[in-house]
């Protein structure tokens, strides 16, 4: 019998505070979201102490969340308090990873003949130069305008236009920008007969998926350039991009096809806190009853829920690797 254990520590400018009791924790991570988020709910039984927390923690206080069994805890989240919500019976602490630090305005600027890397580096240089940019997916823009925008706004614009996976590794102080499903984390094994508790996974073959991706870009002369990739007659997806090169238009089309048109499972499954798993991991799926569905898959998102009822990790898979 395993005992649920946690280690949640707040650090307010060197003043550390360890949370002793809690009602629940929920942590959501995804390569398709700019931020990992966590929600900490404190129980009504400690409200008398909770009311005094405003003197110890507040917006911007850093937080680490370690969860596990029998004090063998694993770091599940590192970030900052974004908001504290209170009502008559509980307190909820909303947390966000390093994206929280980048919700600051950056100086207005018109960047001529620039790139994904240059834009992201401009954000880092003007908000927190201690962060390192890790980018292997560069798209060139003839012009990129930043006007009354935060670092978050600019990163969201890059993601919308390039379809890149953009996320922070808060512990390492890194901002990552990658081609969809390209970056790789750790490896983990899940078996239907051993450590998958519930599943809504449905296997979809690439042969059953038909997409036609159209990328349109308007150059300085006002001319509309258009490229098409995928299966003619398939579900049509149109992406409108700024003035970018034909080579980069090809990259955008390829990125969208990778997201949509590949062998893989649709849906999610639930396991426990062990084994540890997070987005970018490679999950090997084993099934003694249906061996044809076995394989290695890219983990797209995870949701961890922790309370007295137990610990559950919900895993959503991406493409088959």
Describe this structure in words.
The protein is mainly beta and 321 residues long. It has helices at residues 47-50, 116-127, 151-162, 246-260, and strands spanning 4-12, 15-19, 24-30, 37-42, 62-69, 72-86, 91-96, 109-115, 132-135, 140-146, 165-169, 174-178, 187-191, 198-199, 202-204, 211-218, 224-230, 235-241, 264-266, 268-271, 282-286, 295-307, 310-320. The strands form five sheets. Strands 1, 2, 3, 4, 5, 6, 7, 13, 14, 20, 21, 22 and 23 form a 13-stranded mixed beta sheet that branches. A three-stranded mixed beta sheet has the order 9-12-11, covered by helices on one side. It has a three-stranded mixed beta sheet with strand order 17-16-18, covered by helices on one side. Strand 16 and strand 17 (224-230) form a beta hairpin. Helix 2 runs antiparallel to helix 3 (151-162). The longest helix has 15 residues, at 246-260. The protein starts with a strand and ends with a strand. The model has no long low-confidence stretch (mean pLDDT 87).
